[in-house]
Amino acid sequence: MGKGRIRTRGAAVTCALALAAAPAARAGAPAPAVAPPLKATVSHWWTSGGESAAIRQFADAFTRAGGQWIDQAVAGADQSRASTINRIVGGNAPVAAQFNTSKQFRDIVDQGLLNNLDDVAARGNWDRILPQTIIDAIKINGHYYAAPVDIHMPAWFFYSKSAYAKAGIAAEPASFNEFMSQLDRLKRAGLIPLAFGGQVWQEKILFDAVFVLVGGPELYLRIYRDRDLKAVQSPAFRDVLVKFKQLRAYTDPGAPGRNWNDATALVVSGRAGVQIMGDWAKGEFTSAGQVAGRDFGCFPGFGPKAPYMVAGDAFVFPKTGKPHVVRAQKLLATVMTAPGPQVEFSARKGSIPIRPDVDVSKLDLCARMGIAIMADKSRQLPNTEMLLDPDLNGALQDVLTNYWNRNETPERAQQAFAQAMKDNTW
Amino acid sequence: MAATALGAYVLTLLWTARVSLSSSRIFPNGDFVGLGQYERLFRNARWLLSLENLAIYGALFIAACLVVGFLLAVFIDQQVSGEGVLRTVFLYPYAMSFVATGLVWQWMLNPELGIQQVARRLGLAHFAFDWIVRQDMVLYTIVIATVWQASGLVMALLLSGLRGIDGELWKAARIDGIPKWRVYVSIVLPMLWPSVSTALILLFVMVVKLFDAVVAMTQGGPGTASEVPAKFIMDYLFGRANVGLASAASIVLLLTVLGIVAPLYYARGRALQRGRE
C-alpha cells in the first residue's frame, strides 16, 4: 500500500511537471495540443451482466470526452462502500465512488472529505431539471456533493400475463382490497399468488409498498421523515402492519431466504402471479426474452395517483487538490448526467434517467410510464434510505422481519418500531 | 516480531475498545460517550438473540462434532481397508469453503427444491423436512451442516491420538476379557484428553467466528431466527455504518471468548504437563 502511494505521488509529480511544461512548449513551437487523457478510477458495485453493460456506457462516453476510465468494480454494495471509505481514510481515494442516493454519504460530507460539484450543477441547471427528492438527498448545506445517475423505483408490481389469464383476471387492481382478491383468485388457480424472497431487505420493500399504498404518503412522511412516535402508535399504522402481514399467506413455503431474481423467475415462468420489486427486475424478464406489455405487465401501485417511490444511485467525488484530478471529476459528473449517456445507461440498467429532457424511444414501457409519472411532482416520494440513517433503517428492518416471520401482534410491532426509533437517534 | 505482534493485536484491540466508547458512525471519531454504546447494545433485541443463538449453537455443535469425530476415528482405527480414502472423504469437507457448500446445503434443505421435495416425489406425500424455513428449527440446520463440515477435523485429531496409544494396552485388555467399547470409554478416552482439548479449542474458535455458514444458508433468517454475533458486528460495521456499536459488540465477544477459552487453555496446559512428568 505504501509503495502504491509513492507511485501515485510520483505520477502526480510527473503530471504536474508536464502541465507546467505544456505552456512553455506551446510558446516555443505550435505543437499539436494533445492533452494527456484525464485518468479517473471509478469505484462501483455494478457487476452483473446488465449492470456492467450499463456502466460501460458511462465509460465509453467518458473516453469520447477525453478521459480514461479505470474501472474498480467491487461486488456487493456494502463491500464496495466499505472499500471506498477505507480508501478515503487511507489517503488513496478513488476519483469517483458510487453510493445510493441516500444518507449513506452524509458523514463523509460532514467530515469535509468530498469535493462539491456546484459549477457542474450550475452549468447543467440541476436546480431546475432534477426531481426535488433527489436534490434533497445530494444538496447538503447549499452545495451539491453527488452526481445522480439513475432513478430506481423499488416498489413496482410485475405480473405475469399468462398467470393472470389462467386465473381469469382481466384488469390491474385499483385498490389494495382488489389486489388481495386477485391474489385469492391466483391461489385458487393453483399458482403461487405472490412471488417473494424472504430476505430482510425484500421484506422492507414489500412493507414500504404497502405502507404508501395503504397508509398514504402523509403518514409515511410523518413517520419516516418527522419521526413522529404518535403516528407510529396510531390505528392507521396498525392497519398498515395488519395488511402487510396478510400478504404472507400468499407466498409459498420456499420463500424464506430466496433471492429476488429467483422470485422474479417464478413470475417469468408463469408459476407465480405477481412480484413487488424494484425496476431492476425488468432485466430478468428481458434476458428471458419477455417484453413489457406483451408477456408481463407493470404498474407502480393502485390507481392513477399512486405515489412513486424514488431511489437511485449517485457518484461522489472524494476531496483532492490536484487540478487534473478535479478536472477529471468534473468531466465525469458532466458526462454521467448528460442526456445521451443517461438514456443509454438507463436502457440497460432498467432505471429511468434523472432528467426529463431525454429521448425516451429506446426505453421500455415501464420506464416510459415512470418518466411520465415523475412529471407529476405530487406523486414523487423519497424512499426510506433518503430519510433515515443506515443504522436506524437497519433497526427498523429488524423489527419488520421479526413481525413478518414470528407470531407477533401488530401492537407489539408498533412498540418495537417506536423503541427502535428512540434507540437509534443519538 | 514481538513488536509487530504487539502492534497488530494489542494496539488494534485498544483502538477498538476506544472506538466502542465513542459515538462513531461511518468514521471512527474521538468523542467520548462512556458506556452508551454498550447500553444500546444490550437493549438491542437482535444482539441478545444472537448471543442466545450462539450459546445453543455452540453447545450442540461442539458436542456433536466430538461424538461424531470420535466415532469416525474409532471406526477407521479398526484396520478397515481403504483407510486412506476414507480419511480423505471424512476430512474433505473441512477443506471446502462454506460459502460454496452452504449454498448446496441451502438447496438440499429448501422445502421446494431439496430433500422434502424428493421424498414427496417418491411417494411420501406427508414427508416434511422444512427446518430451514422454520423459526424454531432453523438453527439446528446450521448445526447439521457445520457438523458435517468440521467433524472430519476432530476425527483426524483423535485418530492421531488413538494411534499414539500403546498396542500393549489392547493386548492386556483382551487378556483381562474387557469388552472393546469399555476400553474405549474408560481407558482410551481419558488418555486422549490432550487431543480432545485441542479439538475443543479449535471448535470453540469456529463457534465464535460463525458467520459464513449463516450467511450462505439463511442470511440470519427467517426473520432474525439464526442471527449470530459475528454477523451482527459485520452488519453494523458495514451496511449500517455504525462503527461505535459494532466495536462495542466486538469487545463483548472478545471478553466472552477470553472467559471461556482461558480456563480451557489452562486445563490443557496442566494436562500436558502432567503427561510429561
Low-confidence stretches of chain A: 1-32
Percentage of residues assigned to helices of chain B: over 70%
Biggest chain pair interface: A-B, 34 and 36 residues
Q: How many strand units of chain A?
A: 12
What is the typical, i.e. mean, pLDDT of chain A?
Answer: 90
The radius of gyration of chain B is 23 Å
Strand content of chain A: 5-15%
Structural class of chain A: alpha/beta
Query: For the terminal residues of chain B, how far apart are their CA atoms?
Result: 32 Å
Write down the oligomeric state.
Answer: heterodimer
Broad shape of chain A:
globular
Topology, number of strands of chain B = 0
How can the largest sheet of chain B be summarized?
Answer: none
What does the model show?
The complex is a heterodimer of chains A (426) and B (277). Helix content of chain A is 53%, strand content 14%. Chain A is α/β, with parallel strands linked by helices and 426 residues long. In chain A, the strands form 3 sheets. In chain A, strands 1, 2, 3, 6, 11 and 12 form a 6-stranded mixed beta sheet that branches. In chain A, β4 and β5 form a beta hairpin. In chain A, α12 packs across α20. Chain A is globular, with a radius of gyration of 23 Å. In chain A, 50% of the residues are buried. Chain B has 277 residues and is mainly α. Chain B is flat. Chains A and B meet through α3 and α19 of A and α12 of B.
Report a brief summary of the structure.
The complex is a heterodimer of chains A (426) and B (277). By secondary structure, chain A is an alpha/beta fold. Chain A has helices spanning 2-28, 49-64, 77-89, 106-110, 118-124, 126-129, 132-138, 161-166, 176-188, 200-224, 229-232, 235-246, 260-268, 282-287, 323-337, 339-349, 365-374, 384-387, 390-405, 410-423, and strands at 38-44, 67-73, 96-100, 139-140, 143-144, 146-152, 156-160, 192-194, 272-277, 296-299, 308-316, 380-382.
